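Hey, can you fold this one?
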Amino acid sequence: MANLCVRAARQSYLYLASPSLLSRTSPRWLCTAAQRKNGQGPEDEGEKPEQNAAEKALAEEKSQLEGQLKEVTEKYKRALADTENLRVRSQKMVEDAKLYGIQGFCKDLLEVADILEKATESVPKEEVTARNPHLKSLYDGLVMTEAQVQKVFTKHGLVKLNPDGQKFDPYEHEALFHAPVDGKVPGTVTMVTKVGYKLHGRTLRPALVGVAKAP
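Sure. Predicted structure:
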């Protein structure tokens, strides 16, 4: 390119020095020589469209890669959220299994506790005296056994529900009947036929009760 410029400059000088040659020189040739002298030859004009096309292709590729990166990032975030939710659910299931894994066993033991309670209640209190040492010893043994059973129940999160006089709760009580009772507010438990139990806050067996209603 430099050689062309030098050659064009020399030719321009010769034409300018010779009026006869200058008069026969085409204005188009002089314009082309001036453009070459200024570095704006046809070669540079041909390079610009190629450069613009390359820049456009790079911009399109950049936009495409940014879109793919955004999509992959969103998928990664969703995968992290799903993994965290799965971890929380799995941990909750493990904890529930530890707490309520003995639920079936506890239900079976409730029948034993009911029998012990009925046995102690069926003994006439006036007969439990020193005059009946055998009955007294049997009664005391039943009472201690029942107390120990309830102590074990409490240790493992099993709590007795005896809602006598409390407001009826459908989540903890099962109403066997409704009847008007003097001096009782409607909706109040007036009789407990069988006590209920809760295991770690969850009702294992509702208490069977009678409920007062309006006259």
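Helices lie at 2-17, 19-24, 27-37, 42-100, 103-122, 133-155. Let me know if you want another pass with a different chain boundary.
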